[in-house]
Amino acid sequence: MFPRPALARRYTTAALVLGLLGGLTSGAWAGDRRPAAPHGHDRGTRVDTAPVEPTRVPGTAGSSTPLSGFAIRSTAEVGDSATAVSSPGYQASGWYPAGPRSTVLAALLADGVYADPFHSTNLQKIAPADFRVPWWFRADFTVEDTGPRTALDFSGVVSAADVYVNGRRVAPASEVTGAYTQHELDITRLVRRGTNTVAFRVRPNDPDKHLTMGWLDWLQPPPDRNMGLVRDVLVRRGGPVALRDAHVVTKLAVPSLATADLTVKARARNDTDAPVTAEVGGSVGGTEFRTTVSLAAHETKTVVFSPADVPGLRLTEPKVWWPAGMGGQPLYDLDLSATVAGTVSDTAHQTFGIRDVQAPLNSDGARQFRINGRKLLVKGGGWSPDEFLRWDRAYVEDRLAYARDLGLNTLRLEGHLEPDEFFDLADRHGLLTLPGWECCDKWEGEVNPSGSGEKWSDGDHAVARASMAAEAARLRGHPSVLSFLIGSDSAPDATIERGYLDALRAADWPVPVVPAASDASAPQLGASGMKMTGPYDWVPPGYWYAKREGGATGFNSETSAGPSIPTLDTLRRMMTPAELDTLWRDPEARQYHRSPSSVFGTLKIYDKALTGRYGAPTSLTDYVRKAQLAQYENVRAQFEAYGRNASDTDRPATGVIHWMFNSGWTSLHWQLTDRYLDQNGAYFGAKKANEPLHIQYSYDNRSVVVVNNRHAPAEGLTARATLFNPDGTQTYDKTVSGVTVDGDGAHGTPLTLPSSVSGLARTYLLRLVLTDADGTEVSRNVYWLSTEADTLDWSGTTWYYTPTTRYADLQGLASMAKVPVSASAATRASDGTSTTTVTLRHTGSGTTPALLTDVHLVDAQGRPVLPVRWSDNEVSLWPGESVTLTATYRTADLHGSAPSVRVSGWNTPERTVPAD
User: Fold this and answer.
1) Active site residue 184
2) pTM for this structure?
3) Of residues 489, 497, 569, 674, which has the active-site annotation?
4) Is 558 a catalytic residue?
């Protein structure tokens, strides 16, 4: 392993990996709750900024204090020596303040150096050359007592850094490299009473050369390539014996769930030059335990408490953790301390959950996850952090709440492994996570011939092993973590796999390890049981029902129909009028807000389908409204197909990850919710498909299916299917009563629509209604269909889509008469939360329904109030029908304004009514 640096003892992640990084800390960014950065100074211009205050570090044994912020400056603009820069009292005038977790560019954006990078092509105007040299990150901290031992504890360095304390280098960049490696540097001999200085000389990042983070084709990459310190830098204080690697290994009795064995482990490390005897003890789940440990100078021993010697660690009737929708999310706490001569030397704490995860391959070779003994259909989305890796707890929690609202149970993190708080929140929200390494850059440089990553050196192998060890120790206690994907597009070779698996075993990794997100194999783990067959660009809704390519069979780790055009509100925030004009007029135009990829740079495939199915757009507004119908029907079909096929005996669907759940910037593709948390047709299509009890239509065989995602069976249901022409003329109606559907994702088929219906127009509507035994409507679903189906050219399939040779004719929707929908709304507020109740009523006198009626909560200026969670939205009403919807949101997000609701739809004139 790496040599010990002068004047500092370094504990590498391969040997000692730390647990939680500390308390909840927000960065300099506040999501969308602060105005965009104004036009500021040119890069390099001195700015008039407040100094970064020193962090006060207590002497309390076991304390871990995050540095509260840094001052940063390019080395090209700092002529002083490293000794001077890293010494207390250095005058960092003209330096830029940065948050405690910050990339270089994130800090400059917060300081107003550049205009809003999410608008238009502002990001393109930032010169990458400014970030091709190292940058200094400098912080002061103060201590009053030099008696305790002191260490720096950190990870999240992108890409590498020389580390200095009080004028002395304590670790070179050759050791502090890799975004995920954990580092602990003993700086006790350097710390002095009063002010102390820590300085990182951070090296530039290149995802093709370094085991860090990249973006590939997700978005326009940040010009600084995320160089910086993106996780907390902690100052730890303690006595002669340190506690590290504290965790609990759980073993749940499955399927009874009647008992759970807990084994507590920690490493006790003597940091002195003399022998020490320590008492290590703690508690978990109401059970206390204690033992005495004798340690030679600088010796480390693993301390273990198991049910064999502590009977109370065998729990009866344990509180079991479940994903949202399957049960509760109870958590346990582990508290440990090490005492020497009656004085506390160190403490450790961990929050964990009890659950069991298995993921065998089924008879078709597909990965089938089980949690606590029950089959799990993974319904998820790809997670994206903010493009500049700015951490904002509230913004993240808002997105997690959206995921739950959509009925998703899993979020896949391909690289970009978020800070600890993310997984804490996922634990509490009941959202499973699928973390794993990135595709196509350095992480797969050794094994992916089509990627851009460089081959690995011996040093890269060491960094990869240390990264795996650190992330395994960090994530293993989170019940939300479902697995770890040690490969994405490619599986690791034997050497890389062995390094990863050795690190995972050493960390007591508790859940399955999957070799790749694609259909690939690794020497020890064997087949992945996953598929990555696309699509990533537009395909018709019927595509998802075919049990081939990306269709609903097996586990598809990343897939969607590509573009997801945001609402008009978002589009007008992110693009100029000229760009918006090009958006709807020119399918061949390069769209900066889609992707830097040559494959996904335009909207040509999507726009051709939109015109072919719905008719050529006549304006921006028309383009956007057609896009919402297209996205609603497509995303709904994707999740519905996988939901229907999950209980099949032949090649069942076992999982699907919509690519993606959200975007890290203002995007035109791969998102169920946009950067501003507005909700478009894709969002509500997913929400509809993932209802707990749901009635749906099958594009492949015209069957009407009821899917029950609840645990208990559903009995006494009535299913009704009615066909209408666009003018509301009814052409078919059938009701089936006495429908019973088992729980846990089972489905029933109460009826199948006839292949032909007299009087049915080329474009027609299907209304499905499901009522319970009391006659209460529990699910309603409306489809717009055609007697001319979309025709796919399967032989022309590429890695990103399957061509369509004939489009379904939905242009008859344009003939639907405009119909009035009245709206009344009222709002009540309590404890910082407001709820607006909206009643919509179709007040027209004819037969034409109101299709896909959308309600937006807006302020006095007509701007959307976001985030907001609707009970339902984008609803369709027939004459005389009414529906009541509720919207829940933070009262503060009204910014003192009175709320209103804006109602619009496919054939409903827009109107806004007060909601106070």
Assistant:
1) no
2) 0.93
3) 489
4) yes
